[in-house]
Amino acid sequence: MKTFELTQGTAGRSFVKLLFGAILLLQALDLHSTLIALNERIETNKLILEIAAFIGLPLAVVVVKFLATLSIALLIRVWSRSRGMDAPVAVALVVMCLAYAGTVINNYVG
After folding, report:
1. CA-to-CA distance for 79 and 43, rounded, in angstroms?
2. Of 101, 83, 98, 80, nearest in space to 17 by CA
3. Could you tell me the pTM of the whole model?
């Protein structure tokens, strides 16, 4: 029986790539669901509210989501140059995916 090993080999790297794809998809869904939810609910993210005071709420949401996506892209770049970091990165991405999935579901279901 083969076991799934995150610390070495292509299986671990493929799993992390899949998780990065999932987190980017969830980020896009979070942007969409947040923009839809703006009409029905009050935004509670303090960073977005601070930026919104200067540029408006919808644009502030887009800016913050863009910065979050940029930070994920930076993490992808750093990870792709590293070796032996698959397991910790995978754990962090699983947690992020769960958090984003909860947020997206909450935004759509309301």
Report:
1. 33
2. 80
3. 0.80
